[in-house]
Each structure stands twice: as C-alpha cells, then as structure tokens.
Amino acid sequence: MAAPVDLELKKAFSELQVKMIDTQQKVKMADLQIDQLTRVQKHAKLTHAEIATLPDNTRLYEGVGRMFILQSKEEINNLLTDKQKTADEKIKELEQRKVYLERSVKEAEDNIREMLLSRRAH
C-alpha cells in the first residue's frame, strides 16, 4: 500500500513544481512589465512638468513613428495625462494578477502539506 501513496505524493509534488516554475515566470514577467510601465509613467510626468514651464504659444510636436506632428500644448498635456492614467491602470491590474498567482501557489503548497499530514496520521 505504500507504493500508491508514494506515487500520489510524487505526482502532487511534480504538479506543484510545474505550477511553481510557471508562476515564478509569470510573476517575473509581471514585474518586468510593471518596471517598464513605471518608466513610461515617470517619463510622461517629467515631460508634462517640462511642458508646463513653456509659454502657451510654444510650438510643440508629437513624435509619431518617424515623423513629428504639430500639436497644441493642451493636446500634448492631454496625451501625457492619458498615458499616465493608462500606465497606472495596467500597473494595478498586474499587481492584482501577481497577488492571485502567489495565492494560488500558496494554496497548492497548503494542499500538499495537508496531504502529507493526513498520510502520516494513518
């Protein structure tokens, strides 16, 4: 009877290991995306602060691909504000996803612990 128990535990451990590796990769990817979005957010904030110091009649250009388009100061400010809001929303989504992933791994670990404890009790 010890062999089926060992096989069941081995299977549970291997599934946990696969889940842990997958989750760790997803968490690392989320961290990288958060870092990148934070840089985008910071860049937009700094650009917004620089533009605020310019007179209203200053000619401003928006970079689009390999060309530049003349835009008003208000339009540029709106674009930068939208960029910051979008980055903030995505960061919040990624943080929630990280929490979910970490919780699912913890639950899997707890399930295996319970399995081990129940096996020892018998």
From TrEMBL:
<feature type="coiled-coil region">
    <location>
        <begin position="77"/>
        <end position="111"/>
    </location>
</feature>
<dbReference type="InterPro" id="IPR002777">
    <property type="entry name" value="PFD_beta-like"/>
</dbReference>
<dbReference type="GO" id="GO:0005737">
    <property type="term" value="C:cytoplasm"/>
</dbReference>
<dbReference type="GO" id="GO:0044183">
    <property type="term" value="F:protein folding chaperone"/>
</dbReference>
<dbReference type="GO" id="GO:0051082">
    <property type="term" value="F:unfolded protein binding"/>
</dbReference>
<dbReference type="Pfam" id="PF01920">
    <property type="entry name" value="Prefoldin_2"/>
</dbReference>
<comment type="function">
    <text>Binds specifically to cytosolic chaperonin (c-CPN) and transfers target proteins to it. Binds to nascent polypeptide chain and promotes folding in an environment in which there are many competing pathways for nonnative proteins.</text>
</comment>
<dbReference type="GO" id="GO:0016272">
    <property type="term" value="C:prefoldin complex"/>
</dbReference>
<dbReference type="InterPro" id="IPR009053">
    <property type="entry name" value="Prefoldin"/>
</dbReference>
<comment type="subunit">
    <text>Heterohexamer of two PFD-alpha type and four PFD-beta type subunits.</text>
</comment>
<keyword id="KW-0175">Coiled coil</keyword>
<keyword id="KW-0143">Chaperone</keyword>
<protein>
    <recommendedName>
        <fullName>Prefoldin subunit 1</fullName>
    </recommendedName>
</protein>
<comment type="similarity">
    <text>Belongs to the prefoldin subunit beta family.</text>
</comment>
